[in-house]
Amino acid sequence: MRSDLEMIDEWIQPNLRVLDLACGPGELLHHLIENKKVTGYGLEIDPDDLNTCIEKGIPVLEQNIDEGLQNFEDHSFDLVLMTHALQQFRRPDLLIDEMLRIGKECIITFPNFGHWRSRLHLALKGRMPVSDFLPYNWYDTPNIHFFTFQDFERLCHEKDIKILRWAAVDGHLRDHWWIRTMPNMFSETAIFHITR
Amino acid sequence: MPDAIPVDSVGIVVPQIAQFETPLTLSCGQELLTYQLVYETYGALNASASNAILICHALSGDHHAAGYHTMSDKKPGWWDSAIGPGKAIDTDRFFVISLNNLGGCCGSTGPTSINPENSQTWGANFPIVTVEDWVESQARLADRLGIQTFAAIVGGSLGGMQVLEWSIRFPERLNAAVVIASAPNLSTQNIAFNEVARQSIRRDPDFHHGHYLDEKSVPTNGLGLARMLGHITYLSDDAMGSKFGRQMRHDSYQYNYGIEFEVESYLRYQGEAFTKRFDANTYMLMTKALDYFDPAAQTNGDLSAVLSRAQCEFLLVSFTTDWRFAPERSEEIVNALVKAGKHVSYAKIEAAEGHDAFLFPIPRYMATLNSFLTRIGNRISMEAQ
Lengths: 196, 385
Fold this sequence. Notes:
The complex is a heterodimer of chains A (196) and B (385). The two termini of chain A are 29 Å apart. Chain A has helices at 3-11, 27-36, 47-56, 92-102, 116-125, 149-158, 177-181, 183-186, and strands at 17-21, 39-44, 60-62, 77-83, 103-111, 162-169, 189-195. Chain A is 35% helix and 23% strand. Chain A is an alpha/beta fold and 196 residues long. Chain A has a 7-stranded mixed beta sheet, with helices on both faces. In chain B, the strands form 4 sheets. Chain B has an 8-stranded mixed beta sheet with strand order 1-4-8-5-11-12-13-14, sandwiched between helices. A two-stranded antiparallel sheet of chain B has the order 2-3. Chain B starts with 15 loop residues before the first strand and ends with a helix. The mean pLDDT of chain B is 97. The interface between A and B is medium-sized, with 21 and 22 residues.
């Protein structure tokens, strides 16, 4: 599993009702269904990913998240997840509101654009960073919002969203003291567990 | 006509008849004392009778879903693209049953059959049957064939409604429900289209209040017109446009009511061809079954409440250009199942063909169907061990 997924797994209680937004091929949901006995659904629009989920027996619904989530009732899920996708949607702020309406709690992971390598790339080369983890050019990237660990923290603060816990890891899930101390500088992936 | 049977075909199939002597009380209150159902099967039933898939047909479908009846058949069964060895509904693995519903005109008891009580053709006296009645009769056929629990029940359009009804009425008798291009009930517009279709039949002077067979006539104009109307609603604007555009029969306008545009010719042909294979009373019955279907009515309009009885896994499929049973209608079912906490997956397939898409072997659609059924088959095998 991807490192951020392993980290999240530790945070999730058994038997929850979970909604996984942009679930991809359903790696995390599959793991949670098998090992944590959660029930729930993934949302996805990629045909190959949808088919992979169906092959594995993961309940998956074809739904474009940018077109809204009004079909889900208030607090109808214990937990709404979104891993490495928030940066791809039109209005992350409104999406977070929706996630917290549908779920009692949310876990969100995203690539931290404040990582020192991104900063260095932009500062020294004067061009938008392209890395192994975000291997896109500025014009073809599905990632339409770039934000940092601190940006997200500030948004939570402005919206009165409670941060239950957070983690900051590098690409190999190494949880060094310097990442914990300066997550905005050293984490490649930020993980937030939030609620209202 | 196939020169040779394709390797992925179920081959030559022989329809079978099941005769029932136990009376069936219908939703309308009337009783059918005896009746018969014509059906076909493809593949082999395993020792534990756990690999059966039931196919429910749509408005103008019948029991002949796959294979050929004779080597001189022009076309195979109506869903041959999906049913066969190695196909989405794999007959190497599953035992597939397809029947003609009650009220049909292809061998099951219906308006063209003889009423045993008076030895006359049923005609307009054949009682109106509903989706619920069909499911009840299908369950009796399953009993007859020794099938307690289906691996899956699969249907598109009106067939999908039967699948939904199965999941509610006999929740313990199916492992999986595949509901394709369907709806939890008809929209007002759908009912309106059906009424125009029925009126065009009823107003045909050859209809004779539904007793046209006794009068040795057939309301071909009315039935043809009903089919023409239906056909337009099964296709998308784009599909018709790309097929015919404004293609004309002649180089210039003729300024008369003959055929000017190719689409007119196509519709007339479709209408006329239909009257040769289909019965007008059956067509009217089928449209009524569509109109009446509304399982949520049992639970004060709460679809989720009625679907909470279901125990099977669901696969819902819709098609982007389908406006007769639009994706939003399938999504109503999906949302109700999610609310009820049921195991459901949903795919909205990009397709140009409109409602008719459910009959086309669109690669992603077939792959989805196959992935779902393969896993259901694997699950059942694992549970049996």
